[in-house]
């Protein structure tokens, strides 16, 4: 669903405008059946068919499905490591396999922001300049404060530009001032006509700033704060830095593959690891790899020895750099299904969780107030967005089901975590590769929606075989 150009920007409407949207509700989908004895074998068959070596097949995938608040299905297929010369050395995907989960990780950054709001350390509609330590305004709208809500909902009018993650010795301010090293001729700002709080364009830079704000108000490094607060509370042993994982957990990190190298695709060729290159020697602790998907030539490792918290958390990729396993992501699914509660403990207050799941922006065809990315994003909440079962964003071909969650796409990985707003049902998935190019190969397009074919295939299989089994 996140078309490869989609990694750019969207943010929230101002508080008064958000109130205008609160009466919005999700259309009711058909009631889901209890898990059918035939659902598992049929879903097994369809998922197995997705794993392979050519076309729209993938090297590996994993799925976990919940119904009525209980896990009813899980399946792990294919490989997390592929040896092109000796298949006997291939390693399977399991529930413990870790991947760089891409934009699904935005939720974890949002969870910390919500906790800090609950603690009174942040204000949802507060001017982010007071936290960053410098005045940040869109030059085309100099009198409009940019808020935490806008960052969370991609309505801030900030844009990724070529680089949205910069080296640790530089402050994020370098991207937003004309004399800054990463000013990029002002490309980090939306043009006139795309006002803050009114226009949606998806942008990873928003979450890099949210990570920096977390550091500024807690006086802790972003990755460490996440581990000791959100991740620990969810019993997740994950990290943003591969070198800081326990060695036994590092060994479980999987590769993300494509059939391309340096931009040249060879569908009949070998799978090529795109970012991690595992199994390899574990990187040293407190080293970070700065990554920008549209400027791979700038990918470089940096030491954090002299990093000053509160200046530039873009280095940790708060928008997508978390190394999560399927088991870890299942804990996030439980949190969403249980209104901010995990194993009986309230991690996120119910009112804040509800606000997170409430659309902050909706596309208006008359106003043309944002990008829908081909009809895949028609509204956006805070680190979540709805999929409407009767629209171009739908993922179930023959049934109407409304979902709420987030997808991820980066370097060949496709991930997703979704719940149904009207039932205690949900699912998660991660696929670790593509044999054909997104967007540039016609086979990547969905057949009944605006989503990628991979997203259609896996989410349609889950929805029809579990939530609508027998109908």
What are the SSEs and their pairings?
Blueprint: H1 15-21, H2 39-50, E1 60-67, E2 70-81, E3 91-92, E4 98-100, H3 106-118, H4 129-132, H5 148-152, H6 205-218, H7 222-233, H8 247-250, E5 257-258, E6 260-261, E7 264-265, E8 272-273, E9 287-290, E10 300-303, E11 323-325, H9 326-337, E12 341-342, E13 345-346, H10 350-356, E14 361-362, E15 379-380, E16 385-387, E17 403-410, E18 413-419, E19 426-431, E20 433-434, H11 453-467
Parallel strand pairs: 5-20
Antiparallel strand pairs: 1-2, 1-19, 2-3, 4-11, 5-8, 6-7, 9-10, 12-13, 14-15, 16-17, 17-18, 18-19
Helix pairs in contact: 2-11, 3-6, 3-7
Description:
The chain is of the alpha+beta class and 471 residues long. The chain has a single domain, classed as Beta-lactamase. It contains 11 helices and 20 strands. Strands 3-2-1-19-18-17-16 form a 7-stranded antiparallel sheet, with helices on both faces. Strands 8-5-20 form a 3-stranded mixed sheet, with no helix packed on it. Strands 4-11 form a two-stranded antiparallel ribbon. Strand 18 and strand 19 form a beta hairpin. Helix 2 packs antiparallel against helix 11, helix 3 runs parallel beside helix 6 and helix 3 packs across helix 7. The N terminus is likely disordered.
Largest sheet: 7 strands, antiparallel
Strand residue percentage = 15-25%
How do the strands line up in the largest sheet? 3-2-1-19-18-17-16
User: What is the strand tally?
Assistant: 20
- The structure class reads alpha+beta
